[in-house]
Amino acid sequence: MERTRSSSSRREEEKASENGEKKVEDEVESIERIFECKEVPPWQSQLTFRAFFVSFLLSIMFTFIVMKLNLTTGIIPSLNVSAGLLGFFFVKTWTKFLQKSGLLKQPFTRQENTVIQTCVVASSGIAFSGGFGSYLFGMSEVIAKQSTEANDGPNIKNPTLGWMIGFLFVVSFLGLFSVVPLRKIMIIDFKLTYPSGTATAHLINSFHTPQGAKLAKKQVRTLGKFFSFSFLWGFFQWFFTGGDDCGFASFPTFGLKAYENKFFFDFSATYVGVGMICPYLINISLLAGAVLSWGLMWPLIGAKKGHWYPADISASSLHGLQGYRVFIAIAMILGDGLYNFFKVLGHTLFGLYHQVRDKNADNILPVDGSAPPVIPNPSLSFDDQRRTELFLKDQIPTWVSIVGYVTIAIISAAIVPHIFHQLKWYYVVVIYIVAPTLAFCNAYGCGLTDWSLASTYGKLAIFVIGAWAGAAHGGVLAGLAACGVMMNIVSTASDLMQDFKTGYMTLASPRSMFVSQVIGTAMGCVISPCVFWLFYKAFHNFGVPGSEYPAPFALVYRNMAILGVEGFSALPKHCLTLCYVFFFAAIGISAIRDAVGKERAKYIPIPMAMSIPFYLGSYFAIDMCVGSLILYVWTRINKAKADAFGPAVASGLICGDGIWTLPSSILALAGVSPPICMKFLSRGTNAKVDALLGS
């Protein structure tokens, strides 16, 4: 599963980061001049009941959306824009009603808006880092049955609400404490960009200007229209899905032969919306990967049935064609992931070296609770001076971070081995010793490149801990559990630093940002398992390839763990050779993309994106390309409107279809089945069916 936070809203973020890097020299352009007459509320007043009530409702909605994306393709776009926009709309409506009633005590501020956005993103982020579509569900019997190796008792743990909630509570907070002492160095001294955080801050600031508020209302109205359309479209489609391979999602758009090879448009509003948010290059890379795999490679390897793999083997067996699909995809993911890991690590070390070398000896870098006096710097803009002053005002004492981290680490090291007996306490301790360094590297690299490598660090933990535990001692389950521990730490660390950047640019207190992250994370530790449990219990053939929710990355992560424990013995004939080819090809393509520069790189596909359809097929890539095409045509007709309302339209399509999963899962739990099965047959098959029915 890959989270495309850094790339999915690239169009908006690049504009925002460019603006964020510029010092505002002209008084008229200064954001903080606009808000100068408005008093910044103390950090306690930024944390309101209404903010967390709205955050809770939005968290449930966004968790359903992220969970659906997790369990279908694993491609998760940035939802920061939607969270900020909807948070503004709901609280603005709330305060307007209270104002008319004469009951309004506290006006709605951009700081409160930032708290809502932070809380919602932290909560819904647990649906990603919690591994419900990857490592956590990869432990289950459903996924283990799809592999012929390591599918015995010690390597299986079926999901239940109790242990999932407990596990998330003991591992999800460590990342927050690991990087808090470095917030001043990262944000003010190193001036890291954090494009996602910068883009979100620009968005929130614009909402609270008079002109921006008018645009926000129009954007919310547009989002509401497409939300309604998407929800009703999902409801309409449900009536025709009364069986396997029924409904619009199985429409053979390009013919039955193309449909057999996963080339069809499945009328998914969600992925049309995702395609409108993701950059063109991501969508084209997905389509290129689909054409290479399902259009060329799999038909050629399929022709070798009986030679390269047994002819009578099950279609889902990893010793057959399915094995080539899964392991070659893994090879590309690892190749591109490792390349980016070392690239970002290199950037991090190089950047740190220059920052330390160029730092004046008299410049104080506090990491404790005492802030240095803020000396006016004439080279700084009014905005930067104002933001720096307030950012340093409310410090979080270092002892809070250290005591919090050590306490939670001790509790976690004691509890996690009771949840996963295969993951010994000393494995957990080793992870927690190494984790702060990796969390810092991820947070720093994310600030430079906006690319979070949380899943890559998780995969490294799979191989290291899995091999250390060994096959005889449940190494597969130990590796997957270690992946969860590592991913939660490094993911929340980079998310928190992004939020500190957003808070810095909206004058929200670091304390309110931290508290909002903690509360949002706690919400996510309960909401995400409950939403997953609803999916798990409601939908037939959940986690099975070809079903409505195949959870493709759960099998990918499990097979990574098997590779780490048992080596390459699990691979079918010639698969290892092909894996080597695609592993090094992914590294080579990534290196070429960096070597040719940004202008030429946008014409070279991204290996990580290309690998996703290798296993899944091209149907969602076609949906996303349709979304790109809609946005492209709209931009050509009216660029200003497309830039202003494109994200709102996309968010409406994603949210409406995502929320439809709640009533559809309730209907499934209640035993209510769709009344119609709309199926498509070839002329010959149809004639046989008619003859059979006629007899």
Automatic annotation (TrEMBL):
Membrane topology: Multi-pass membrane protein
EC number: 5.3.1.6
Ranges annotated as spanning the membrane: 47-69, 75-94, 115-137, 161-182, 223-240, 280-303, 324-342, 396-416, 425-445, 460-493, 514-536, 575-592, 612-634
GO CC aspect terms: membrane
Location of region: Disordered: 1-25
Primary localization class, coarse: membrane
Pfam families given in the database record: OPT (PF03169)
Record localization: Membrane
Keywords tagged on the record: Isomerase, Membrane, Transmembrane, Transmembrane helix, Transport
Listed GO MF terms: oligopeptide transmembrane transporter activity; ribose-5-phosphate isomerase activity
Class of enzymatic activity (EC top level): isomerase
Family: Belongs to the YSL (TC 2.A.67.2) family.
Protein's name according to its UniProt entry: Putative metal-nicotianamine transporter YSL7
Organism: Davidia involucrata
Taxonomy of the source species: Eukaryota, Viridiplantae, Streptophyta, Embryophyta, Tracheophyta
